[in-house]
Design a protein that fits this description.
This protein is α/β, with parallel strands linked by helices. The chain has 13 helices and 15 strands. It folds into two domains: 297 residues, Aminopeptidase, CATH 3.40.630.10; 114 residues, Alpha-Beta Plaits. Strands 1, 2, 3, 4, 5, 6, 13, 14 and 15 form a nine-stranded mixed beta sheet that branches. Strands 9-11-7-12 form a four-stranded antiparallel beta sheet, covered by helices on one side. Strands 8-10 form a two-stranded antiparallel ribbon. Bound molecules: (2S)-amino(hydroxy)ethanoic acid (HGY) and manganese (II) ion (3 copies). The site of (2S)-amino(hydroxy)ethanoic acid has 6 residues, from loops. This is N-carbamoyl-L-amino-acid hydrolase.
Length: 419
């Protein structure tokens, strides 16, 4: 039955919200933490388990599943006109170590729910549809974040990504091999006509304004830095305070400078010193070497530049004053990215057709859609999450909002696939 001939058939179509919710709860067991979150680092055994589950669920829904050389999983739903590029949805199934049940996972499982709902309604779209689980969106185990979609968009070669190593020295290639997900498809070979990603907002705006849908117009810019503080190890009992070159005190001052620099560009700029490690730590040794990381973001590229300059100045000033060497190396820069007006309009139209409250917004978090926008039309749909909290085990969302987001995804995909 073709929706083009029978638009009301699609118009009244809704996903099965309780099936979607039970899928979210069912897959939360892979990497479940005692506090009710998920710790499912990319390419871990927990990630393998959820990937196997996802592959089986897609195949059970009649989708053809392929895997590329970075382990990204593509599940294809055939359309009437297979000469057209598929209209894609999806997100990521890997999580932060203190992850929740919805970040990334909602976008993938809502895509599965859309396919299941179209199957139940016996609806075939003109263009094929595609559901994608992108490898390593989080960037917690291997940097940078959103690495597989960045490689798909041509920002990195496959070999560059396969060679990236985690803190234990394991490479992406070795990790893929160990979980059996180094697929045969060349990265970027598969044509995609457009990509629409459903995601929780991971911020407080929709909930505060009591809006159900975020119509996302783009993603902000991101810069990641690796940092070192070099001082001098010395005896905790015999080294007088004025003679110390204490790397910990240098980092403490620098951390406050990071906050000051972000606040200087309020309200948009954010900066996070998320990792810090004393090399060869010991209770009775003055810290001499520290490694740390920085994550700096703003919707404007010029502000990212200004913050980077200010961070380097602060490092030099504190270093000179405390006889330390504080060095920053920028390892990743993602420019602010606008989404595609035609797709934004399709998302807005779908939400309007469903009578859902909504507002335009820019994404504070990075997403795979932000990388794909460099290669194809891309857009995002947000739904609220409780207190705007994410990257925390307490992350939660409402079943009705998840279903509403999936309905907007369904109607956006059908509109694009039948255009
Ligand atoms: O860091 C991010 O913005 C994404 O959640 N990985
Ligand atoms: Mn995410
Ligand atoms: Mn995330
Ligand atoms: Mn001693």
């Amino acid at each position: 039955d073709t929706p083009a001939k029978n638009p009301t058939k699609t118009h009244n179509l809704r996903v099965d919200g309780s099936r979607l919710w039970s899928t979210l709860m069912e897959t939360a067991r892979f990497g479940a933490t005692p506090a009710g979150g998920i710790n499912r680092l990319t390419l871990s055994d927990e990630d393998r388990a959820v990937r196997d589950w996802f592959r089986d669920a897609c195949e059970a829904a009649g989708l053809e599943v392929g895997t590329d050389a970075l382990g990204t999983q593509f599940a294809l739903r055939r359309g009437r006109d297979m000469s057209r590029k598929p209209i894609a949805c999806g997100s990521h199934l890997d999580t932060q170590p203190t992850g929740g049940k919805f970040d990334g996972i909602l976008g993938v499982l809502a895509g599965l729910e859309v396919m299941r709902s179209l199957n139940d309604a016996g609806i075939e779209t003109e263009a094929p549809l595609l559901l994608v689980n992108w490898t390593n969106e989080e960037g917690s185990r291997f940097a940078p974040a959103m690495m597989a979609s960045a490689a798909y968009a041509g920002e990195f070669t496959t070999d560059e990504i396969l060679a990236k190593r985690d803190a234990k020295g394991v490479s992406v290639g070795e990790a893929l091999e160990s979980i059996g997900y180094q697929g045969g498809e060349p990265v970027g070979a598969r044509e995609i006509g457009a990509f629409v990603e459903l995601h929780i907002e991971q911020g407080p705006i929709l909930e505060a304004e009591q809006k159900t849908i975020g119509v996302v117009e783009g993603g902000q810019g991101i810069a990641w830095f690796d940092g070192t503080v070099a001082g001098f190890e010395s005896h905790a009992g015999t080294t007088p305070m004025p003679r110390r070159r204490d790397a910990m005190l240098g980092l403490a001052e620098f951390a406050l400078a990071v906050e000051r620099i972000a606040l200087a560009h309020a309200p948009t700029a954010v900066a996070t010193l998320g990792e810090a490690e004393i090399v060869s730590p010991s209770r009775n040794v003055v810290p001499g070497q520290i490694r740390f990381t920085l994550d700096v973001r703003d919707p404007a590229s010029a502000v990212l530049d200004a913050m980077e300059a200010a961070l380097n100045e602060a490092a030099a000033e504190i270093g000179t004053r405390r006889n330390l060497a504080i060095a920053l190396t920028r390892i990743w820069r993602k420019e602010p990215v606008p989404f595609h007006p035609h797709l934004i309009a399709a998302v807005d139209g779908a939400a309007e057709g469903l009578g859902l409250s909504r507002r335009r917004m820019v994404s504070g978090a990075g997403h795979d859609a932000c990388n794909l926008a460099g290669r194809m039309p891309a857009a995002m749909i947000f739904v609220p999450c409780k207190d705007g909290v994410s990257h925390n085990e307490s992350e939660s969302a409402e079943p009705a909002d998840c279903a509403a987001g999936a309905d907007v995804l369904l109607h956006t995909l059908v509109t694009l696939a039948n255009a």
